[in-house]
Structure formats: structure tokens, C-alpha cells
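USER:
Before I trust my own judgement here, I would like a peer's view. Write it directly below this note and I will take it from there.

ASSISTANT:
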Amino acid sequence: MTSNAASDAPSVEVLADRPAVLRVDGPPPADPAAWAAAHRGELRAAVAEHGAVLVRGLGLADAPTVGRVGQELLEEVMVEREGFATRHLRADGVYSSSEWPPDQPMCMHHELSYRREVPGTLLFACLTPPASGGVTGVADSQTVLEALDPALVARFQQTGWRLDRNYTDTVGIGRAESFGAGDRGAVDAYCHRWGIETEWLPGGDLRTRQRSAAVLRHPVNGRLGWFNQIAFLNEWTLDPVIREYLTFEFGPDGLPFNSRYGDGGTIDEATVLAINAVYEKHTLREPWQAGDLMVVDNLRMAHSREPYEGEREVVVVLGDPVRVPDPA
């Protein structure tokens, strides 16, 4: 545990297998945004040190309050583009969690890591905790990189990774939600700007490809980390029944999303399982409580969402955009 005896700065508790926890002393503050403004420096410093910090006792109760906290803690709040699953806008700059079956895990990933401009910081706020499960786990990208098979890392460093997506009217996220506009001209302009290859299919469906580096050097601390969504956005992470149905219905190249080696090579199931096994070994967990806030350095820490039962409302704010280097 670390503390600052010379001031009223809140202490940060660090325990094995758990993210760092900062506890707000006393009853929840009357205005969480004012608390965030007063403690912004200490909280941002703690995130820089630990990668992610769970703030407990802040008493967040609604999305507009979370939005005001985001305005105080972040340099800039971002609008989501190119998301892989539907979100709903709950308040200005505040999104619902991605729609994903509650009985299926969302594997470790760095938010929007396939984009050229990514959120540097994420805010997760728990308005309603689930009856069980539903933890948002985090894992340090440098630790994960060092634990992966060097041969696996070397191939991805050489080729990068590629994300293939299909936009249809029947499955997956729509073009307008992903790109902010649905007409062909606007989509082509967006994709050209951000280095995304487009292929318009008969009937108006769209197929895109975008290549990214699999390893990122953190622009502030210089650490190399495993920064991507290779394992999560891969066919082998889909529920087998869903994968078989989608493959039968749309063909092997028609899945809503799939990751590949940067040269187009297929990633086999064993590679996906190996990556996820390393993530699992290094996951930090703390069950949600109502009113919690988690601040995450998205460049340093991957995050996941575990299966859950009951109602669960966790909202997110994306912020502090960072332009990542184009793949070599």
C-alpha cells in the first residue's frame, strides 16, 4: 500500500492478482465530478504507475455523472468509430458496454487497437453490478508479451496482424454505426483516410481489411507491449455453434470479423488458445460494486469481460486519443 502522509491524497492498495484499488474515505462525495477534479493529479499518477486503478466509494449512480467525471479526468473525450459490437449512447460521451451474450466471455483486448487512432485512456463505471461474474479483468501488455512464445511473437512482429470485416444488413454492426455514415462515398472517404481497404460486394455489402502492428511501444513510458485484438476478434473465439452457423450461411470469408497474420495467413486455433492462456495467467480481477470507477491505460493494459448472471450495467468513456504508428 502506498500513501501520502503529507496531504489528504487517497491511498492506493495493491494486492496480488488484483488491480490497484483507490478507496474514497468516508461516505460517497456529494459531487463525484468535483472529487475527480480535486484528485485528478493523484489518480492519473496512480494509473501511470499501475496501468489501471479501481476507484471504490465514488458512488457513481447515473451516466450523466459518469460523463462529468470523464470531462474532469480526460484531456479529450472521444466518439467511438469502428466498434465491433453495438453500443448505445447513455449520455454525452458515455456508452453502454458492447452488446455481447452474457454467458459468453469477451476475451482480453485493447480497445480499438486495429485503428490508427486509439483511446489512450478508458473509464469504466459500474452503475449496476451483476448477481455473479461479469468482472472486467485487466492484464499488463508487457508482461503478456514477455510470457508469449518468442516464435509466435516474432512472426507477428514481422507481418503484423490483419482484421477482416464484413458489413451486411443481416448480422454484425452496421456501416452507419461503425463509420458515422452509411452511404458509399462517405464510407470510402473514411476508409481511405484511415488506411482501410474496401471491397464492395454485389448487393451493397462491404468487406474491409486493415493491417496493424501487433506490438506497440508505449509513447510515454517506452515499454513494449502486446497491443492488439488478435485472439478476441478471431473465428476460434466465437462460440462453436455460432461459428459453424455463420460459416455455413456466409462462407469462411464472410464472418462479421476475423483476424489473420498481416500477410493474410490463417491463424490456427492453437495460436488463439495459447494467447488466451497467457492472458488468463496474468489477469487481475476485482468484482464490481455499485458506484465503482475503473481508469485504464488502454495502451498498457488489455481488458476483458467475464460471463455473468443477472442485470449488469457498466458504462464506458473513451478518451485521450493517441495516433499509433502505421505498420511497417
Observations:
- Residues 1-7 have pLDDT under 50 and may be disordered.
- The domain at 12-104+113-132+285-323 is CATH 3.60.130.10 (Double-stranded beta-helix).
- The chain has two domains: 12-104+113-132+285-323, 143-278.
- The CA atoms of residues 255 and 288 lie 33 Å apart.
